[in-house]
């Protein structure tokens, strides 16, 4: 089912001669839209939503939508300057709503804001819920004192950590050890900057959103409950493991109470007005694999880390139990006393995003993906039916049901396989995935944890020893079910659930179609995607640029056990079958049913110089070419009308950021965006420093030429003042009314 741009146009019923832009009644001028027939600027406008009419911005690479000849492209893109700001189409501006360090309740606005959800309580007023995913260790340390206004013993702790390759097993230190107190101080401040936040907003007469500081404004941090009694709760079979006595592994002594939430990446909003937050890369802070009874490995497995780049393992010093993280966390933003519930029936893995299909008289279906190389797509189906999709009692439906993993067939069909004790062991084979690596529950069940398998022959004794998932886990039937959910990713590999290409977002269209972004097809240390499903436009393996997939449940039934799938859009260079973007991430639907999308190119690849597309006589990898795309971007992808099948760039982020959490208000006058980790690589931009780099680009017809690009080193966003520290922030984008 590999689909390039030409195939996509055919799939959507568009001829290659169809007009690619609609003519607006009042256009915005743009340096981008120049036709091949004329050198004069053509004022053309995209009707993106009710208010977001825009002229696409100019990116670092040529796009098909420009209709430029090769000669015009080479002239227009011979040089390019990257800007350390949010670049928007003419006629648009943005306001900073909140930034790292601002007051929120009795705490502060956290770091690296990600998913956003705006639940309106009345016209032009409501609650904005924000995820705070992680801290950028090096930049956070360098800017902490200037932004927060107090100091931490960074240098003292780092000097000691350096003696042991950057790590300290702080959990084992004596309670009165001064080093332990210093690590606790650093770890607690860093965990405060993760989790979730709720802030109240109101729009003024000028169209700007302002904070109202209501009683419901609050933070749910990585240490909520540690000293303040604000523990998080849990539902479902996982509780059986949390409360189990005589565990094989680590006991935190809290039963089903949970301290905090962290690594909160994407999320989703229910039709009844609650918000679910996805705990993703929890392995950075606590142990991810578990024992055969679902209990945690010892905190010493993931020590405190402080080196030149990272500041992780922060659960170690507090003795956090790893099996209590990696869940979906539900919060009612309007309830000031709600500090979060983790629904264990939704499974524990590196969650990224969640989508709800809630239809009257049908089962509730909840979709999510595991954002790792070789991660899976999952669906939870409730036992009971929905009566009223707007009823807040629907949250109870997530307390009983079944979790399924998706098996994709190369012919565009698929099925859902339940993760139950009765499910047959049929592991994914290393030969089936790109990179040749599969992770499975450790066959030594007394030792627990997981193993990495690189040879199909290693699977034979595993299948001989274990016949069902229940054979892998220890306890009563209910306890085994809880352990399977806690160990969901490794159990799914053992059950043969398809390994995919980093599923990052799941969104439901009005017709019930599920849209999934697969961000990167490159394999890695966790595994890789299925060879038969995830390939580039010409069948390439290790295709870095990503895809957007459609999944249609058979018989249009949320509880169906089979589905069909198609590739809607493919990332990559236009000349090579891509649509001009790389690494698609969060999706959002507007009221017309069109998609908006943000990209997630890894910071290390931003504007990375590439002068030559060949190395040792072979083409370089797609991952080596990501730098040509510049900074991360925001895109509009119409799914109907004259422009369907095309992709139009709407915004570019500042230096070294990821633009996340797009959310349109109900009147579609405002687009909220989270600007994450500015200056993550180079830190604070000093004295407006930049450097010139060279890039080997392709025209849209495939002719190679060299671009000279000016790239700022670090960031001063959002203040944009000389030598100011970069700060993650949430912005509100709006059109400038004349």
Task: Describe the protein in words.
This protein has 738 residues and is mainly beta. It has one domain. Helix content is 11%, strand content 29%. It has 10 helices and 41 strands. It has a 9-stranded antiparallel sheet, with no helix packed on it. Strands 7, 8, 10, 11 and 12 form a 5-stranded antiparallel sheet that branches. A 5-stranded mixed sheet has the order 13-19-18-15-14, with no helix packed on it. The radius of gyration is 25 Å and the shape is globular. The two termini are 47 Å apart. Mean pLDDT is 93; it is low at 1-43.
Oligomer: single chain
- Mean pLDDT figure: 93
How do the strands of the widest beta sheet line up side by side?
A: 20-21-22-23-24-30-29-28-27
Distance between the termini: 47 Å
SS content category? mainly beta
The total beta strand count reads 41
Strand content range? 25-35%
Tally of helical runs: 10
Count up the domains. Answer: 1
- The low-confidence parts are 1-43
Radius of gyration from the alpha-carbon trace, in angstroms: 25 Å
Shape: globular
Strand count, sense and barrel status of the largest sheet are: 9 strands, antiparallel
Helix fraction by DSSP (H/I, runs of at least 4): 10-25%
